[in-house]
Amino acid sequence: MSHSLDETTHDSRKRQHLATDSAYNDDAGDGPIRPAVNPAYLNQHTLERLREALAGQPPSGQEAVAGVWQDAESGARCLATPFPVLQLPRFFSLPEEATSHAFASALQVELAEEPLRHRSNDLFDFHQSWDAQALQGRRMHGLRDVMSSAPVLSIVETVLGVKGLMPGRVDMAAQRYDRGGYLLCHDDDIKEEVESGVARRVAFVYYLVDEMWSAEDGGEYAMFDTVHGQPGRIVHRVLPERGALVMFRVGETSWHQVEEVRTRVAGRARWSVTGWLYGPLDQSNASMSSADRASPASGSMPVPTFAPLTAAAAEAVAAVESPLAQWICDDYLSDEAVARVDERFADESTVQLCGFLRASARDRLARAILQLRTYAGDETSSAWCELGPASLRRYQMLADTCQIQDAATREAAQTLREFDQFMRSVPLAIHLGRLTSLGLGASTRAYGELRRITHGDYTLLRDDWKEPIGLDAVFHLLLKVPFDADTDVSPSAHHWPDADAGEAEWHGAYHYVSAEDGDLLATLTPADNALTLVYRDEGVSRFLKYSLQESGQLERLDALYTYQVDFGDGSDVDMA
Fold this sequence. Notes:
Layout: H1 5-20, H2 44-54, E1 68-70, E2 77-79, E3 85-88, H3 102-112, E4 117-120, E5 124-128, H4 138-147, H5 150-160, E6 170-177, E7 182-186, E8 198-207, E9 221-227, E10 230-238, E11 245-249, E12 256-258, E13 270-280, H6 283-286, H7 290-300, E14 307-308, H8 313-318, H9 321-327, H10 335-348, E15 350-354, H11 359-374, E16 384-387, E17 393-398, H12 407-423, H13 426-436, E18 445-453, E19 458-459, E20 470-480, E21 510-514, E22 520-524, E23 530-536, E24 540-544, E25 554-563
């Protein structure tokens, strides 16, 4: 947009008035207390420089450093890749308040008096206020007014290039991330808004952290690049800064997350206000069909399917006791045990079998896991491979093939593969069918994998990636580390903390939820050498809650396998 000298001067005077008049109504009346926009961000020349920098074309002689370009006059920072992000320090501070954050400080005090809801699901864990419209605080109402006002929308349209933003249309709420809080990888793009023609166009975060917040406290805003439509690796991180406003365009490539808050300072939390500005749907997205929008995910992440078990039917029936006796504790092989487990499963559709593996098999498997933990191989020789993308999962899976030179480590990897084959075997399927009366047999199909779970691992629920339903068999080994193979007789089991007893909360359990409304149906708390059986029918989804386990204390193996259930008559089992 071009301006004559007179128009620019007139605009500057209007903006100066808008920036300063709210300084006089801080305690006057009962209406909203509107913050003053820093005049540095109302200067048209500054905004043009920021626009060029976000487009990857900073002014001549002012190159970006480590991917970040900083404006010398305003202090604003621009990240052009992996997607444009604008960081505006002291957004509501006047020049004479350069080292002060009066509004941010007062707003945080106000928000501390508001009731916050603890919100926790597969994607996030934090405390959140109701929408700003429902709050009592005058400063929160004032912030909402200003964020959807013409001057701020003009800044956004000029710098981010988003046109047609709707004055007065904004969603906004406050969040408090305590130690262990997080928001995992997502893109803020709400696909359901395609039909309405109005969508989230710009996301913003106004930081209220204390001025001593550092990278050691965590909670950084992390940005992912995009590979085949999915998040790749983290390429930039933005440290929360008191009084700074961060904004970016919402889209299918704006993959980002709030990293885990790690602060150990008592009473310190990551406070912020987040929201979205609305406008007409971006036509580049609107023209895409639902199938087109889902295709990148489907193409790069094949949905799991059932596969035949590992033994031929005749061989399996003839040798049904041999592999079971090799792996499973005798307590779960007798007819009495089968009847007892079957009765409980019929009542609850789930049952946990503690001490499932016989001691010798458990110790052999445990030693193999610990051996692989200490092996320092490169990516091509590692027994574990990390799975993604971050918008769906993060954990390590036992690799199909690898080239390990060390004989002991090679033997350990083979032990895990033998256990994987046992979990996929017909003899085990037949025995699980006896334990549950679900009729599993030689023709049963299954899918599954061995997972190494460490701090920060998780899985997320997605509409375009669903697991087949059936009987889930979830097995855990929880091992104390370090382990000395020369002096320790047997790898020791690690106790999973009991949050109800005041112990540290590690999360990291598998949660079963209603796919329709997200209601929690069951939680599988990990326990060493325990196999949990759960019948998961239509309308039930599961996810691994983000794990906060202390990796320096624990080595964890999860075996997750699902067996296809065919009732023949179309009947089903309800999960209570």
